Each structure stands twice: as structure tokens, then as C-alpha cells.
Amino acid sequence: MTETPLEQTTKIEQQLIEFRRLLHSEPELSENEFKTQEKIIAKLEEFGIPYKKVGKTSTIATIKGKSPGKTVALRADIDALPINEDLGLDFQSKNPGVMHACGHDAHTTMAMGAAKILNESKESFDGEVRIFFQEAEETFEGAKKIVADGGMDGVDAVFGMHNYNTIPTGSFYSGAGDLFSGCDTLYVTFTGKSGHGGTPQLGKDSFTPAAQFALDLQQIIAKNIDSRDPVVLNIGRFASGTKANIVPKESTMDISMRYFDEDSRDIGHEAIKRHAQAFADMYEITVDVTIEPSTPPTKNDAALAKIATSAGMKIFGSDKISEFPRAMNSEDFSYYLQEAPGVYGIIGIYNEKKGTTHAPHDDHYELDEDILKLGAAWHVEFALEFLGTADN
């Protein structure tokens, strides 16, 4: 009798744990994942899986089945965060100020486990599986590089996943529709004329219109965008002036804008530019609004969400589907969705007994390693179901 993907990944669970801990102990920041890439390549060579380097530190592994067919891509991000780890783990970060506080070490491990299983069973399926070990998710640059280097050429479907502490270990979510918001960054610069603080009438103050604009920002969105379409603004940086007795010539702010509906995004952009100009005109100064798109929204394809959920039920159980309301986080997985339909799954890590209750990007974040065999098997099952060769 053929072993199931979960039975196969359970057999290699200790290997998965060891590899994840190896990655965890040497985390690297976005676009500097050189040692991480070396570890990934060493494993691929050990397993006899062909690969190529792309981007700066990304790697694409390719597994071809017995005959031509569809192509499915599995994506794992590999970068860490600029956070200092002090959890007292035997395998904690050796790199001061850098930590795998988002679980990308686990994502990489699960995809590697899937690669091993799929490579060993490649005579049982038709088509091709590509595994993206992707750099720089945290800076939203990695997926664009893989796309630019042709990684998505000929891909029919793409699958990825992320661990979350909002649902319990042993549960999952892969529903259709909106999952994560898109995100743009707006750089706003008000420019006036400097002068002495004792004679402000001889200068052109940039601070006051900038501050009034900042205070009005939420109302600008509320009064211009359909209230049924959430748009979240955050002023993450505001800077003005140089010294107490100098009229500020320049005032700048950096604003993140998160959205699901692209029409609402466009309306928001225009409203923000229009109001910024109005405040500048009122004080007879100038303003510049530069908009930098970061990521599109992540929206799961309905047909592929059905396959992912079917695969997930085989791995986790039919009673382990969790709710996961759409979130105002952003993910550069969405760039793959501009090229082919895809689905992004959520795998739970919440386990009070193990203390894995903290959210990603928290310096107390820990991962429940029980998910490694589950996530690896979910990758395998999704790929096989999509390629049409999974046992039903």
C-alpha cells in the first residue's frame, strides 16, 4: 500500500526539525541570505534535485514527473528580521540583532521536505513541480525577482503558506477570495521657506500645513471611499525642521496605505494628493506626493482554494478547518498571482503548552515544530491533487 504524504513526512520529521533549527541558528536579512542559500543548495544536491540560482539569493528547484503535464509552483520565503533573539533556545540565533521571528525557517523546511518526498515519487505523477526558495519577502522584493527571472513562465498554479498564532496547531485555512491587503507607500513633502523663529512672517512655515494635513488624513479617506471597502492609513514617519529658532523649510511624512479594492485605492490616492495640494496652497508653499506601490492584494483563486482545502483535510482532518478573517497584512506572494492563479494557506502554531502563542515579528515569537511534517505534507498533497495524481 502506498504511503500517504503525511506518513512520508512523519518518517522524516526529525530531519525536518534538525534542518529548521540549523536555519534558525543562522538567520539572515533580506537579500543577504547567502549562507541560507548555501544550506538550501546543499540539501537539494543531497536529494539529487536540479536547481538554479535566481535573483540575488533565491533558488528554484525543479522536479519533473514521468510525463509532461501541468506545472505547479510551491513557494517558501527564506529571510529573517532585524530583531534580537533572547529566548534561551539551544539553537537560537548566532547573529546579533537578526532573528527568524516570522517562521520563514519553518516555511523553507516544509518546502524542502516536500521537495524530498516529491522527488522520490516523481515517477508517480505527470507534470512539473517548481519550488521557489525566495529571498526578501520582508522587503517585498523577492517575488518580483523570481518573476523577472522567468520563474513563473509556464506555471499553471502557485501555492504558498504562512504560520499564524491566531489559529491552533493542527488546524489550517485556505479559503477563496481576499486574504491579505495590498500596500502602497506614500511619501509626502511640504516645502516652504526657512526663516528666523522671531520673524516667522518672513519665512514660509511648512510644519503647520503638514501637521493639519496629517491630522485630517483619516477624514480624507472616510469621506471619499466607500465605507464597505476597508482602507487603512498609517503615518509611520513625520519629520520637520532642524532647530527651535528656525522656521521649518521642509516637512516630510511616510504613509502606508493598505487596501483590498483597487478602485478604492485609486480614489484614496487622488483624494490625498488633492487635499495635500489644498493645504499647501492655503499656506503658499509647495507639496510633492510620491506613491510607491509595494504589493498588490493577495486573493485566493476559488478553484485552487478548493483543492488546497481538500488537500488540507487529508493532512489535518476535515474538522480542522479554521476561520481566518481577511487581514490588513501584505505579502509579496501576490506578485505570483499577477502571473498565474494561486492559493495561500494559513497553518496554525498556537499551542499554550509549548508557549507558541506570540505573533510573528514579536521578539518572543516561537514556532511549534509539530507543524513541520504537517506543512510539508500539505505542500505535497496540494501538488499531487493539482497535477491530478493524488489518491482520493
UniProtKB/TrEMBL annotation:
UniProt xrefs under CDD domains: M20_Acy1-like (cd08019)
Domain of life of the source: Bacteria
Lineage: Bacteria, Bacillati, Bacillota, Bacilli, Lactobacillales
This protein's name: M20 family metallopeptidase
Residue ranges constituting the Peptidase M20 dimerisation domain according to the UniProt record: 185-278
Entries under Pfam families matching the protein: M20_dimer, Peptidase_M20
